[in-house]
Amino acid sequence: MKKTICFLIVIMTLTSCANKQQNNDPIPKHDEFTIQSKKVGEKRTINVWTPPMYAESTDSIPVLYMPDGGLKEDFPHIANTLAKLIKNKSIPPMMLVGIENTERRRDLTPFTMVEKDKEVAPIIGGADKFRDFITDELMPEINKRYRTTNQKGIIGESLAGLFVMETFFKKTETFDFYIAFDPSIWWNNHELERDGAKYLQNFTTKNTKVWFAGSGAEDISQFTTKLAKTFDSKAPSNITWTYSDEPNEKHSTIFRAT
Question: In the chain, which residues have pLDDT < 70?
Answer without folding.
Answer: 1-23, 256
